[in-house]
Amino acid sequence: MIQRHPRETEFFIETRAFVTNNDGDRVLAGLTSAETDDFFAYRDQRASGMHPSKDAREKHLKLAEIHERARLAIVVAEVESRNATKN
After folding, report:
1. What confidence tier does 2 reach under pLDDT thresholds 50, 70, 90?
2. pTM
3. DSSP string for residues in 12-59
């Protein structure tokens, strides 16, 4: 996986964006290791001022949607679990 700045990693952990896959790699929820690398490579290109192709933008948006759905499912499950223990 592409190395991230420690603050960025901390943010992704706190927001339940990162999960550990079956190989023990830290990946974005819902994405494979390769897809996680692609996701961050795109972000890094944009941050450096590069303008990725239309195909790359569309792929990134697809990965972002898959990831956000998986991340939100994790957050919802944690909230439901907390609420269940309160009752």
Report:
1. low
2. 0.85
3. HHHTT-EEE-TTS-EEETT--HHHHHHHHHHHHHHHTT----HHHHHH
